[in-house]
Amino acid sequence: MNKVSIIGAGPAGLASAYYAKKNKIDFEIFEASNRVGGNCVTFKVIEFLLDSGAHRLHDVDSETTKLFKSLLKNDLRKINIPSQIFLEGKFIDFPLAPLNLIKILGFKKLLVEGVKIISSNILFKNDKQNFKSYAEGKYGKFLAKKLLLNYSEKLWGLPAEKLSSEISGKRLKGLDIKTLFIEFFFGKAKRTKHLDGSFYYPKYGIGSLFEELSNELGLNQIYLNKRITKLVHKDFKIIEIEINNNEKIKVDTVISTLPLNVLIKNIYPAVPEHINSIIREIKYRNIILIAVFLNKKTVNENGSMYFPSEEFVFTRIYEPRNRSHDMSPKNKTSLVVEIPCFSSDKIWKTENKEIKKMIIKNIADIGLINENEVLSVKAFKIKDAYPVLEKQFESKVEKINSFLSKFKNLKNVGRNAMFKYSHIHDHFINARKIFSEK
């Protein structure tokens, strides 16, 4: 690599630039919007700060953690906060833990279902045919439906039997004998830490991670408002990129963080039709954020609140000040409500004022707020927030990647480009791999 041209200044694009610089390779970044951070940013509204989702920096990759500690110093804090599920009018701890079941089931049913959970963890055959069979095989039909399947169907927008078992992540981690032992003998705090309730978070929101990193990289190499409209290739080598339909730039190596469907669409000459037909089969999910600013000191102590019930259009609510008190002015707080949807869904096309009105009523009915506490409400619509991991999505993505691998100087990195449900540290690990192979 003599020089890398990076498409996108989100976490994966900035991670790629960081490792390019570390390896003494020239780089340039082209970002379609007017800011860095991609879908991992912090917005400022009045005196409030809020993130574009309940983002966090997991202390999983020591090199990534060390980098951000060096950049943010005392402004990067390790916090330990629980999350809960709202079910049948009650909040229960999440990720799920065995003693939660008393709240959900009552003592009698706990004995029956508790034995099922413990025995299934011992005898579980790991059926990964789809998410429904995986969840039911591990936790039984009753608990799987009540706590996992409904929520997952809302989040991903598809029936559970059409979802890959890969979506389970750590949401199923808590129901095991080890967690029961930890909770019973050491208490809720130790259990929360065991279940990754502990993570790093910046004083002024998740976006400051990437603002500081972009400052470190050098802003003169990051070009904003530069949308890539064409990647011109010859003999399976990208020779030129077109920006905003007019500006043309010669390239050596290209690193793309674009969603796969956007990348494929912009390759010129066009890709074969069989690749286009596969691209049409993969999906990305959008997110609508409704931020509610409150004349109230706090709502509760949760990191996130999850809502599996179909009566609510939203899946998650988080209170930014619980991650950092600097996210809200003194004696005030805010709630951020997440509504996942597709571009074709009615709610995506609904006017913001109607969505705001509905959400205020919902969260007031739950008892989280009184309507007279609301100072203001703001809506944000985020397109292509994450890939939808349908059953057998891997085979489709493998065919697309097999075609893209023919391009000698094109690399993909990032959640939407790799079509993986990944986290901040994953982007840095994957970017690092690109330059270790140089």
Task: Please tag this protein with its features.
five-stranded parallel β-sheet, about 450 residues, Polyamine Oxidase, Chain A, domain 2, seven-stranded mixed β-sheet, about 35% helix
Describe this structure in words.
- By secondary structure, the chain is an alpha/beta fold.
- It has 3 domains: 3-42 and 57-78 and 203-282 and 390-436, 3-Layer(bba) Sandwich (FAD/NAD(P)-binding domain), CATH 3.50.50.60; 92-196, no CATH class; 284-387, Protoporphyrinogen oxidase, mitochondrial, domain 2 (Polyamine Oxidase, Chain A, domain 2).
- It has 14 helices and 20 strands.
- The strands form 5 sheets. Strands 7-6-16-17-18-15-19 form a 7-stranded mixed β-sheet. A 5-stranded parallel β-sheet has the order 9-2-1-13-20, with helices on one face.
- A hairpin with a 3-residue loop joins strand 11 (238-243) and strand 12.
Note the gap between the termini.
7 Å
Total strands: 20
Q: Can you say what the CATH homologous superfamily of the largest domain is?
A: FAD/NAD(P)-binding domain
Count of individual domains: 3
Give me the side-by-side strand order of the main sheet.
Answer: 7-6-16-17-18-15-19
- How helical, in percent, are the residues? 25-40%
Structural category is: alpha/beta
Kindly state the mean pLDDT as a whole number? 89
Main pleated sheet? 7 strands, mixed
> How big a fraction of the residues is strand?
15-25%
Q: Which descriptor suits the 3D outline?
A: globular
CATH class of the largest domain: Alpha Beta
Query: How many helical elements?
Result: 14
